Amino acid sequence: MEQLNGFIDESGSYGFNFANHNTHFVVTVILVEQGEKTRLLQEEFDQIRRDVFHGAEIKSSKIKDRTRQRIFLRLKKFDFRFYSLIVDKRNIFDRSGLRLWRESFYKYLYRQLYAHLYSTFSSITIFADELIDKNFIEGFETYIEKETQNTLFQQISFSNSTTNSLIQLADLFAGTINRNLSGKSTFDLYYELIDKNAGFLIWPQKRIKYFTDHLGIDGFSKEIYDLSLLRADSYIEKHKRATDPDVILRVRFVEYLKEVLLYKGYDIQVYGAEILANINPGSEFKLNDTLLKTKVVAPLRDDDVLITSNRKGYKLPSSEKDIAEFFEMLFSNIDPMIKRMKNCYDSIVLATGKKPEFLEENKFDYIKRIITEST
Q1: 4-203, superfamily in CATH?
Q2: pTM higher than 0.85
Q3: Where in the chain is the domain with CATH 3.30.420.10?
Q4: Distance of CA 144 to the CA centre of its chain
Q5: pLDDT tens sequence across 199-238
Q6: What span, in angstroms and rounded, lies between the C-alpha atoms of 319 and 323?
């Protein structure tokens, strides 16, 4: 089991006057295995500071995109991941307490981040900047003390970013993501470091306006779309505090398909390899494509989560076309099996002149009905 360090920093601030404040608030965690991998990453980043900034503290807000690109290119070869909480403050309801009270804003958002880290990584030490908002420190420490009793996620250390350079790296990541989301830069960190992305939590959820924009498009069904999200949300809510590793992976799988449906498009399907790259990091064991089907997808379908699949990948269905393609794929696998059973049955009847007696057993009623009624 990986023993991880998590280096956290934020970009953005509390405030909803968007003439003076960013539209987004981003918190990023740099995740790296404790020991040698942390040491190597820190040494390289310290060398970057000396080469590019003459050893000075790095502040993301003062760095040009060309310099960012050079820095991230040098970091690509190191073994680490990053995970982010992304908040579009414009989508927080006007009457929400998060808009009205600064303390509530920080405590709630970092609580969301912690809950996702806690459900994903079983052993992690958190390092955060002691200079970040006091409300965050108080809320985060209180929540950890309350929620992590008898778990391995109990260590948190607040450090000055001038003495811990990997907290500066978290600041660089968060700031780069925020600049892109706020329209201040076209540099897309998720594209540049796609293999380092351990996922992201977007809050609050913004429903794409399929209900008006796509009503005229063939196949889109608001009813199927709503049902898919309802079933997904029900499963996530029911199992969000699960400790079973298999169930945790299933929750992450559903969350990922939900993010794709909400934020990438109603007709987007996701290959298994992409899903594995997003749900495997931090798990106690690594899934492959076969285990994804048997330990994740099949049990989710048994629990009434609507998941369709075909040669293009998986998705939460949003149209009859999704369902039809899924049924066609299943039938293409089932039909040859049925034909083989029927050929076997017909051969036995022809050779013996009687029906096999074992088919009279109750457990074979369904198969008997299929092979005797098929032509």
Answers
A1: Ribonuclease H-like superfamily/Ribonuclease H (3.30.420.10)
A2: no
A3: 4-203
A4: 22
A5: 888 887 654 433 334 444 557 888 899 999 999 999 998 9
A6: 7
